[in-house]
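User: I'm preparing a small set of examples for a lab meeting where we compare how different chains pack in three dimensions. I only have the primary sequence for this one, and I'd like the structure in token form so I can line it up with the others. Please keep the answer compact; I'll paste it straight into my notes.
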Amino acid sequence: MTTSSSERGVSLGMPELPAPDYPDDVRERLERDAREIVARYPDSRSALLPLLHLVQSEEGHVTRTGMRFCADTLGLTTAEVTAVATFYTMYRRKPSGDYQVGVCTNTLCAVMGGDAIFESLQEHLGVGNGETTDDGKVTLEHIECNAACDYAPVVMVNWEFFDNQTPESARRLVDDLRAGTPVSPTRGAPLCTFKETARILAGFPDPREGAVEASGSAGPASLVGLRLAKGETAPARVVHPREGGPHDEPQDRVHEPSPTEHLSSHDAPQDTSASDPSHPSPATALDGGASPRPADTAGPTAEEGE
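Assistant: Understood. Below is the structure token output for the 306-residue chain.
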């Protein structure tokens, strides 16, 4: 006799049916918003991604009820909806905090300090990856590259950028979030809660004052290559990690290298035995540096017949 996975207490990530329904007033509001979303697309099933953001904005994660609502609205099976909801990491499958704090631990951010930041926040908050603090304010997770390598290491809060972080600045950031102290991203729109972010991602107008203007364009570090391609001269600059937090410090503090500094070891002049008296070659060391190198070591040997 075989038993099902549910009878064995094993979860495969699929919604258990029947799912409870939304209260009448909530369902009426969601249906009104859903009609507006579906009307944007020539094929109704194309509306699934924004619909998932819509139901996520209601409860802070995609519930069985939310997936059933999406399936009913679009004429899909719950299996089809679940396949999409479990594929994309921006859809949460369990209750989350008001602020999703994601630490990039991909290669560049990791070597620049991302791993240290993540470990520091785990200890500071007392939670692991994907877990939420007891007050329901912060969910901590490690994330993959968010295309902000110029500002590594990067921390994202509800998908807004906090650049050039350190363990100290990241701890202060989450403390401010939990205390309700206003914080501003390094660049981009003002911060809002995860539910509010989900509704914006569903395609509804962003109510934050100045949000559109604040989105702006790429930062100065990202545009250096474009400036060079246009023939402009980009000043040589080395940006050092800041000790404080970028959400309360100026972003243009840079270190101008002195004539003796080099941006890369590949750009540094190489001292050789021929040009550096303090490091003579074995041959010149024996005769006090007066004799030239033997002819057979002076360069490449000519091929026979030349």
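A couple of notes for your slides: The CA atoms of residues 66 and 282 lie 78 Å apart. Strands lie at 99-104, 131-132, 138-143, 155-157, 160-162.

User: Perfect, thanks.
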